[in-house]
Write a structure and sequence with these properties.
The structure is a homodimer.
Chain A lengths: L15 H19 L2 H7 L14 H13 L12 H18 L1 H7 L7 H16 L4 H29 L6 H7 L1 H10 L1 H8 L5 H24 L4
Chain A binds a DNA duplex through loops.
Chain lengths: ~230, ~230
DNA sequence: ACCTGAACACCGTTCAAGT
DNA sequence: ACCTGAACACCGTTCAAGT
């Protein structure tokens, strides 16, 4: 009788959050190609089929995972500060979050994020903009422009990072491996070759600077179109 | 002897371009989930394994397909017109192309497009910008900002389109199907709900207008940072 | 050189059957 | 109600074997 295992406190071993959390862990560790229902199930010491009791399928699981990580975005306090700083802070925080979870950016290309965390973030910024005198249309355009800039920048950056982190370990390694192709590129496309062969010791900082520049351009333009009410 | 089939003019039945073209056709018709090696092979009346003689694998095939459609982008003539119009035209043409081939945008999130067509386009714009007095860094930032805005906008737009074109056929249908969720959203997130429940009879035009606004903001900002040399 | 056919290891998803 | 186990139909990729 000492061998008789104690019955689990609950019959239920699984939960939706447990599944989503496991999925996020797998995605962070091995990226989109590493995610499979069987893999997530194994992570939870469970059978693949049982996941379908809590989740509709792989696509829904990916959407849930994407919204879970959107919860990591820092939102400025409700009615605090000026709109420009609020928008910039949200954008930078969202960019940082997507760079931490690169797979999330590619989920967005299949389904718009309409989970609670995404809606909350969008609602918060729209409220801020409305309070600053933006018309509904302009507020909409502003939110769209900034978040599109974020996702576009993250997609380009992670795609490039995947090249460098693939077979090659560093930028210099890649430049050596692809030397043949780069030579051909240099000959035919001199301007773009300058970008590729540049030493660029701190690529991360450079792309952050480029992002900040684009963001500033957008914010300047929005302020100009807002008129001089604020 | 009349039954003896004429020998084919060439032994070779396949070619890389034939494979890529078939892949693009499948992708356009059925999207990324519809693409499989076996499907492309069937399209060419051939066995799946034979594709590997011409192509390294599915990932490479996707990259080749993406670069093939980037060839559809209209590039402004080499040294013609002002930089602003050239950049805007390229961006709009690229946006239109990605909306025609939505799967291409999601390919970019895995691998940066370094195919010949993409390099040619990038080189052309960089040359135009250099000719207009842009420093290499600013030209780089300009190209990055604009093309990131394009991909971000297209990703958001096609993702949204997938929602509406999924089970529901039109925006009104979707609004009816998701009425329960929308009611909950309206209560909790009033600002964002206004976006979702709006009638918006011409969504395509609206998102094009938003894109043009963002593009104009970026171009204005770049001109300001260029100084008054041009 | 180029393509077939079959195999391998893996998928997502379903569903009876158990508890 | 919740989970297992097995099955189904499909993958990408490899590779001997044919021609």
């Amino acid at each position: 009788m000492w061998l008789r295992p104690e019955r689990p406190a609950r019959d239920r071993q699984l939960s939706r959050v447990a599944i989503v959390t496991a999925a996020v862990a797998v995605l962070d560790a091995e990226g989109t190609p590493g995610l499979s229902m069987r893999r997530v199930a194994a992570e939870l010491a469970v059978t693949a089929g049982s996941l379908y009791w809590y989740v509709d399928g792989k696509d829904e699981l990916l959407e849930l995972a994407a919204d879970q990580v959107t919860g990591e975005v820092d939102l400025p306090a409700a009615g605090s500060g000026d709109w420009r700083q609020a928008l910039a802070q949200t954008a930078r925080s969202q960019r940082a979050m997507l760079l931490r979870h690169p797979w999330a950016a590619s989920v967005l290309s299949r389904v718009p994020n309409m989970g609670p965390n995404a809606l909350r973030a969008a609602d918060r910024t729209l409220a801020t903009l409305a309070g600053a005198g933006f018309s509904p249309d302009l507020a909409d355009a502003a939110l769209t422009a900034v978040s599109n800039q974020v996702t576009g920048a993250v997609i380009a950056e992670t795609a490039w990072r995947a090249v460098v982190t693939g077979p090659a370990a560093t930028l210099a390694d890649w430049q050596r491996d692809a030397a043949g192709y780069l030579a051909q590129v240099t000959e035919r496309y001199p301007h773009v070759a300058a970008r590729l062969t540049a030493p660029a010791p701190d690529m991360e900082a450079a792309s952050e600077a480029r992002f900040d520049l684009a963001l500033d351009c957008l914010l300047d333009g929005l302020r100009a179109r807002l008129g001089n009410r604020s």
